Amino acid sequence: MADLNQIELQNLRHLIKGAENSYQKLNTYSEQVQDTQIKQIFTKSSQEALNTKQKLMTFLNN
Fold it and tell me: What is the pLDDT of residues 18-37, one digit of tens each?
């Protein structure tokens, strides 16, 4: 993979931060909600946000 330029790196960091924020919020919502179906939706969505963050992080490690 080619090296990232400064703008690409800045955009990647922005996307990673957004995915982390989404994960944290959705995880908090899933802990607070009482309805089991909604809890499941928040839990699944928070896991997807974490997976997205981890995938984006691989670009920094290459």
Answer: 999 999 999 999 999 999 99
